[in-house]
Amino acid sequence: MELKRLIGCASGREECDLLIKNVKIFNVFTGEISAGEIALAGGKIAGIGYGYRGKSVYDGGGATAIPGLIDSHIHVESSLLSPEAFASLAAAHGTTGIVADPHEIVNVCGIEGAEYIKEAFSRLSVGGVNPIDVYLQLPSCVPATPFETSGAAIDAEETAREIGRELFFGLGEMMNYPAVISGEEETLEKLQAAQEACKPIDGHAPTVSGQLLNAYAASGIATDHESENTAECLEKIACGMFVQLRGGSSASNLKSCASAVNEFNFRRFLICSDDKNARDLMRKGHVDDALRMLVQCGIDPSHAVCMATKNVADCYGLRGKGAIAPAYDGDIVLVKDMLSFAVAAVFKAGVLTVENGKALFDDEQKYFPAAVKNTVRIRSVKADDLKLDIKSGRARAMKVRPYGLISDEEIVSVDCKDGDVILEGTSLLKIAVVERHFASGNIGLGLVKDFGLKGGAIGITVAHDSHNMVILGDNNGDMARIAAALEKAGGGMAIVQNGKEYVFPLDIAGLMSSAPADEVIEKTESLTAIARKMGVKDCYEPFMTPAFLSLAVIPALKLTDRGLFDVTKFEFTTVEVKA
Amino acid sequence: MELKRLIGCASGREECDLLIKNVKIFNVFTGEISAGEIALAGGKIAGIGYGYRGKSVYDGGGATAIPGLIDSHIHVESSLLSPEAFASLAAAHGTTGIVADPHEIVNVCGIEGAEYIKEAFSRLSVGGVNPIDVYLQLPSCVPATPFETSGAAIDAEETAREIGRELFFGLGEMMNYPAVISGEEETLEKLQAAQEACKPIDGHAPTVSGQLLNAYAASGIATDHESENTAECLEKIACGMFVQLRGGSSASNLKSCASAVNEFNFRRFLICSDDKNARDLMRKGHVDDALRMLVQCGIDPSHAVCMATKNVADCYGLRGKGAIAPAYDGDIVLVKDMLSFAVAAVFKAGVLTVENGKALFDDEQKYFPAAVKNTVRIRSVKADDLKLDIKSGRARAMKVRPYGLISDEEIVSVDCKDGDVILEGTSLLKIAVVERHFASGNIGLGLVKDFGLKGGAIGITVAHDSHNMVILGDNNGDMARIAAALEKAGGGMAIVQNGKEYVFPLDIAGLMSSAPADEVIEKTESLTAIARKMGVKDCYEPFMTPAFLSLAVIPALKLTDRGLFDVTKFEFTTVEVKA
Questions:
Q1: β partners of residue A170
Q2: Residue A346 to chain B, least CA–CA distance (Å)
Q3: Which residues contact A84 (CB under 8 A, 6 or more apart)?
């Protein structure tokens, strides 16, 4: 009996599988760090202390042992990495678990996208042990809005059916907070289905406050990662929500929210990364990087570690996770100290999975099922399909706020020739959102001001949240070439500059690359460099800024495959300003 | 849809069922007390704040609202009260939930005893609402030891079958800690069954420390309520256990352990009462009394309240319990302040259940099924059956330590006449433990020194943990009369003094009375007074001290229906010291 052996080892009667010696051990229950040895058996922690014997012994070299780090909310797809490549980087930074919301890939591939993510992670192995636990959320907002064509739609009925599956740990972030607060039936049915299945529900409630926040919390949604400041955090905490401090690549509230944490409430904070790109994952880190940041912001290191370990386990009810104590899973990270959080080694279920900064599992062998391959299906785009006729001479252009995602409406004067707007000599670019799931031929057309690209076009098949093809350019011909190139690549990032094509395929659902992490970083950086040379302003990300131009839940003017959308009025509008 | 209405009320759009006005509200997440109003709908809390409308409005008169109090571990039977009478007293003191381990009644009646407890509580109602949630534990130690005859036995196989039932919330305190630590198969099978059913397991590990504590914690047992001092608490906390501070009638560690609580670890402490008698429940209180004590001991009131609310919910995974926040159950106690914790009113699921110190539900109508009636079955006891022949002139007598439960062995010289020990002129009493479940005729006989009873006999059918009949007396005739009287009463407490019989029936399983609480208190006090007049020393409880003389897990010399037991050697011994 497994339990009998664990108890036998804990009591010192039996020899353990592994003894980690020469470490200091951080205790999430007491907040103390004490010298000791960690005895493990059958993948679990048997005991802490001295006097144990182990079949194998690992010398921790004086490092500090903390529980395996758990990212409480992440969209793995945003790294542009395959699950395997992501896992390798994340593990090397001490991550042993992620609450993953496969929102992006499910919007493209439906449930099969989620199954793919889970399966790809599940196949990873070191000594029979999976290096990263994946708590998979069933995306709650597929599609994110009814104003665009996504690759899949999951209604309340399907949600109710799917949420009961073992595959799904909970319901992913409920971004449609206005629908929750207004009591929209379909949305509430999804929440109710998750509650009836006793599964946690993640939230997303930016700036929601007062009675509206009460309403959001009353729905049973347990978490939020959108707070922007201390007051917002504290109000959500008071409402009983767990607040996730976010250390994402583009969105981070670690600095602005750190002062919300105090000795009484620290158990109500978690750490998440939400969206983290490959470069940051490799060069800065994952949850460990957030820990460093938080400690630099003045948070007690013992509080910070709890936020990435025990608190996550408490919030989501992760049995056996989040502590170094008897009966807990043997998920342990050895860090140099609780200031640098430099990861020296990682154990998962008592097996060494990371040493000297390197994951010890094979991330080259990739799971790549048909369901996530060749997902880019468009009706052939000709240059003439991209003509935009503005008879009135006045048009609505999108202008993105520097370093942000909000795109304001700006009324611009335009000239036309041969039934198409003249871009030359203006600060305007044309933007096309090409439906790419069903080859419907839908193309939304619009104008973008002051983005700063000259002499070609740029395009990407990552376009939140429906991930159609977004193309920006200063001429129709190059834009059409981008569409063809991206179709051929099965999705990706592409540039046409002075007639020359540069393509980096995102061959997994048009969202992620099957290439190794360093190649993904190198290729995306070289494409970014080309875009910069073509004039894309420093205040914009050449690919990611366009990727958010079709997200019709962020103010104020967005473009989907069905046309220009006024987010403020929550209705479609026209590019042309009628007289 | 219920959820839709709750959200509607929370948002302020819809009128709530109840609005509690003019209160301060304690927030278990922030530790803060703030003015506000509590809006409730459908039994749940919709929102906190101002601007809500309620179909009915309750003026809190400036009281402080705290979440309903939850006793994290109690044997209801120890109150000698029926569940109905217990509920009435407990509710009046702010209790809205108990984790109940029906260890005593199940040792008498088997699973039907547990079913009775649950059903009796379930039938209580105020406006369709049950005033006290009962999280029923399946007793893990039935019988507590193999050295006595109990009314029921629940082996690992039955445990595995029963623990899966909705009736049982978890597995009751695993008192047999030596078996856990030594890895005894039958015991581990019980633990494993509970773990497989994902149900919590309560612990009981007095003075267990070091590797042995690691072993106990490795078994997956989550709680302990036996700590005696700060160091013991802190070691158990470090091992990942929840420590229950105990405010029981006979055993209280509130004072000796209070200093273990600090700002980092306070979430790991709970409050329990374990065993609480009717008198204390009525005159001192229940969990509220422990709160008062803890605050007097210097514990921050905000920490103390969490220990009786949110922490209990966290430990046991009680959904919707332990906080006043949106989506939580409307279980609210209004107290004068967080120092006196004087209960002004109680709401359960949004319904007023207690006002002006009185429970608003009927506790007179009692559930009294056949299974727990007439449980005292003995083979008729004649005076001669109680003869104790000591040929060697030397005998082992039990001597109870003052104010305690430990009974030491003392070798005494005795004279015999007609094959029976002579008590007259000595400080000895005879003790008989009469098997009372199956009328087997088993009678264990022994001697007790310095208890101080003269001129009769005293007996009770509460005798931990098998609850046989314990009789003490200075003559066989009166002792035999006690046996007959207790059989006739269906169990209870009895005294024969100078030929006069006084009996208070404990007609529910021989453990609890179906009488109202005030009658139970009055009758037990008047019997106690008689016993005192007969000379029972102040350092002993006339009934409860004998009730523990047959508990063969407490040192050092105990008597069961099968004979004298040496707890130190863990084997039966003889009263007579052979030459």
A1: A137
A2: 21
A3: A120, A124, A363, A364, A365, A366, A367
Chain B hits for A191, Cβ within 8 Å: 3
Reported as type and span, the H/E element at residue A72 is strand A69-74
Q: Beta B16-26 vs B64-67: how paired, if at all? A: parallel
Instruction: List the single residue in B7, B48, B214 with the smallest CB-CB distance to A215.
Output: B7
Among the partner residues B46, B49, B240, nearest to A325 by beta-carbon distance: B240
Closest CA to A116 of A128, A106, A125, A129: A106
Query: What pLDDT is recorded for position B579?
Result: 75
Q: What does the H/E/C string look like for A390-454?
A: CCCCEEEEEEECCCCCCEEEEEEECCEECCEECCCCCCEEEEEEECCCCCCCCEEEEEEECCCCC
> What residues of chain B lie within 8 A of the CB of A302, using their CB?
264
Of B4, B37, B16, nearest to A219 by C-alpha is B4
Instruction: Compute how many other C-beta atoms are within 10 angstroms of the C-beta atom of residue A42.
Output: 15
Q: Judge whether A137 and A83 are in contact, CB under 8 Å.
A: no
Contact B7 A326 (CB under 8 A): no
Whole-number Å distance between alpha carbons of B352 and B359: 9
Helix H, strand E, coil C: the string for B112-171 is HHHHHHHHHHHCCCECCECCCEEEEEECCCCCCCCCCCCCCCCCHHHHHHHHCCCCCCEE
Instruction: Suggest the residue from A1, A24, A29 to mutate for an interface test with chain B (most B CBs closer than 10 A).
Output: A29
**Contact across the interface for A265 and B239, Cβ inside 8 Å:** no
Burial B147-164 (b: 16+ CB within 10 A, else e): bbbbbbebebebbbebbb
Nearest chain A residue to B27, by CA? A238
Local confidence band at B250 (pLDDT 50, 70, 90 cut-offs): confident
- The pTM score is 0.95
Consecutive 10-residue runs of chain A (579 residues): their mean pLDDT? 95 98 98 97 97 97 98 98 98 98 98 98 96 98 92 97 98 95 97 97 96 98 95 98 94 94 98 96 97 98 98 97 98 98 98 96 93 97 98 97 92 97 97 98 98 97 96 98 98 97 98 97 97 96 94 91 94 94
Sign of the C-alpha dihedral computed for residues A220, A226, A232 and A233 taken in this order:
positive
Q: Which residues in chain B are contacts of A265 at CB distance < 8 A?
A: 29-31
ipTM value for the complex:
0.95
Report how many Cβ contacts below 8 Å link chain A to chain B. Answer: 178
Do residue B328 and residue A240 have CB atoms under 8 angstroms apart?
yes
Cα of A321 vs its chain's centroid, Å: 22
